[in-house]
Amino acid sequence: MTTALELLSPAGNAAIGKAAIDHGADAVYIGGPEFSARAEAGNPIEEIAELIGYAHQFAAKVYVALNTILTDSEIPKALELVRRIHAAGADGLIIQDVGLLELDLPPIPLIASTQMHNDTPEKVKFLESLGFSRVILARELTLSEIKAIRDVTRIKLEFFVHGALCVSYSGQCYMSQAAAGRSANRGVCAQPCRHAYTLMDGEGKIVLENKHLLSLKDLNLSGAIEDMAIAGVTSFKIEGRYKDAGYVKNVTAAYRREIDRFLKTTPQYRRASSGKTTLGFEPDLEKTFNRGYTRYFISGRNQKIGAIDTPKSLGKEIGTVTAVKQGFFQMQGDRVKNGDGLCFFTSSGNLSGFRVNRVEGDRIYPSAMKDLARGVRLYRNHDHEFSRLLDKTSSVRKIGVSLWFDQSQSKISLKAIDEDGNEAAAEIDIAYEPPRNPEMALNQITAQLSSAGNTIYEVEKISIHPAKPGFLALGVLNRLRREALDNLTRIRLNRYQPKGSVFRPNPACCPEKTLDYRANVLNRHAEKFYARHGTTVLEPALEGGGNPNGKMIMTTRYCICHQLDACPRYAQKAISLKKPLHLTDGRRQYRLSFDCDRCVMHVHQASSEPAAP
Predict the structure, then answer these.
(1) In the CATH hierarchy, which fold is given to the domain comprising 3-165+217-273?
(2) For 495-508, what is the mean pLDDT?
(3) Which 3 state secondary structure label does DSSP give 479?
(4) Concatenated DSSP letters for 397-438?
(5) From CA 467, how far away is CA 406, in angstroms rounded?
(6) Other C-beta atoms within 10 Å of 547: how many?
(7) How far apart are CA 383 and CA 313, in angstroms?
(8) What distance in Å separates the CA atoms of residue 88 and residue 111, rounded to the nearest whole number?
(9) Distance between CA atoms of 496 and 235, rounded to whole angstroms?
(10) Helices 245-265, 14-22: inter-axial angle, 10-degree rounding
(11) CA–CA separation, 265 vs 255, rounded Å?
(12) Which of 251, 408, 517, 569 is surrounded by the fewest CB atoms within 10 Å?
């Protein structure tokens, strides 16, 4: 018995979802019309249904996100959306709000969003006992922690492998809600973690000024596919429902190669969908949006993961400025081209950039030269030539098919069998006509049947009987091939049916007996859910109007002390910082606390008043 490994890509819209499938995704996830954790990436049901039809041709799946917490007034509308999503043929529903589990849901597989804070064996085992078909694990987990979850569960495990990182445990960040009234758990995060802050020690002294102290590098686990599969991950998820098609194409293609490389050498695993992708470009993760890459905690705490100098995309370092002249500069390093976007850090530490207007020999003429100086390191954050490749049709995905042609005295027939063993046929009544040139007749049949035209198929094998067939017009052969392949597609779609999963409430015990605002309970259905599972909710979600002052508004495995070499556990010569530490953005002040036993950092809203100078 082999295990299917799934490459899961983001789809900001149906067109991007189709592009992801064309570039090798086994599945895509897309936001529903409302109630998605990326509120601005909502999509009409009709477009989702179109994407589902396209994906299912390749036995690829489409999961729909409805993963925000809901108010009582929103519950009826959310239930109607779930029913429409199921009717459209979706393969799964990604949810956060447990209030939905108290409703009469259609038989659609339920996926526990990472917003549910799925970080322990006990939590994942509970979700499995409830009837979830899949759990999206917390990004912060190590390989050993993933394996510990796999050891006590059989549920499918999904894990993020690439893209932007939330600094907080997902579902446990209230900074945006506290600062701007925009809830991450409601899909409208204002991303205060990407803002600049000043770090002050317990005596009010400035430790570091105007740095992006909560901003992280981007995740890149392309080199850890084998380790994650062995630990128990079966779905490798790319972040990015706000990303454009070029990003999704490039990253999907890169991970398709990595997973396929592993599958070739490991027969106990197989691909989760059908078809082969042929690319028109060379994937390169360095050429797409990134803030610098990190492996996060997959192998433990062994990297500096903060992108504290800038929250913007740096791209790839390509060289150093060697001379600055009137209107142009020269550099040593990689070749640059017209239209490229380059950036650099100024002497004051700010990120600046420019467009390359033209290149003449070793002279580079930029759109701006302010602060450009000899010795500056340059980064390419926009590769113009690469982007133009991705703007075009940059891949073709085809399903292998074998054809058997047969001719009798009164008819011709064609049988088609695809790589998954699906079989279809077509036949046309037509009298046998002896060919004037038997060799030419055979070659003509072979040529017409070899080309599958504008279909999802690629003909890999043809068998023709008899060895010396009669004469047939091109139009007849084209019609026969078209009808056989159309029938095959209908059979593929009919045989591919989303697996239903009826949710039935049960009395499984929640691992926690009391919960506070961090349970994100915003409606009476969620309260009822926890009561049924033996848990008391002490207070509602902050989104219900709670006062955040003094509360813990972020829990993160990222640690500012570790980032600044102030942690004696990891730094040989740790600098000393007088605690408690505080962050300020000039308007609000946040107190930091550290649970060193668990190796996590907490951010508390210290005051809503302007911070002291």
Answers:
(1) TIM Barrel (3.20.20)
(2) 89
(3) helix
(4) EEEEEEEEEEE-SSEEEEEEEETT--EEEEEEE------SSH
(5) 10
(6) 10
(7) 12
(8) 17
(9) 19
(10) 30
(11) 16
(12) 569
Chain mean pLDDT for the chain: 96
- DSSP percent split of the chain into helix, strand, coil, nearest 5: 30, 30, 45
Q: Retrieve residue 571's tokens.
A: 């730094």
Non-local CB neighbours of 14 within 8 Å, separated by 6+ positions: 30, 43, 47, 48, 50, 51
Q: How far is CA 168 from CA 165, 215, 603, in A?
A: 9, 10, 10
pTM exceeds 0.90: yes
- Give 298-345 as a DSSP string: BTBS-S--B-TT-SS---EEEEEEEEE-SS-EEEEES---TT-EEEEE
Let me know the angle formed at the C-alpha of 465 by 460 and 469, rounded to the nearest 5 degrees. Answer: 110
Question: Which residues pair with residue 330 across a beta bridge?
Answer: 323
Question: Domains of the chain: which residue ranges?
Answer: 3-165+217-273, 312-391, 402-495
User: What's the CA dihedral at 381, 384, 389, 390 to 10 degrees?
Assistant: 40
Render pLDDT for 260-300 as a digit per residue (tens, 0 to 9).
999 999 999 999 999 999 999 999 999 999 999 999 999 99
CA–CA distance from 535 to each of 24, 504, 526, 530, 563 (Å)?
Answer: 43, 19, 11, 5, 37
The alpha carbon of 306 is separated from its chain's Cα centroid by a whole number of angstroms, namely: 21
- Rg of the chain in Å (alpha carbons): 28
| Contacts of residue 449, Cβ cutoff 8 Å, sequence gap at least 6 | 403, 405, 414, 459, 462, 477, 481
Which band of pLDDT confidence, cut at 50, 70 and 90, is reported for residue 1? confident
End-to-end CA distance of the chain: 65
Please answer whether residues 167 and 213 qualify as being in contact, where contact means their C-beta atoms are separated by less than 8 angstroms: no
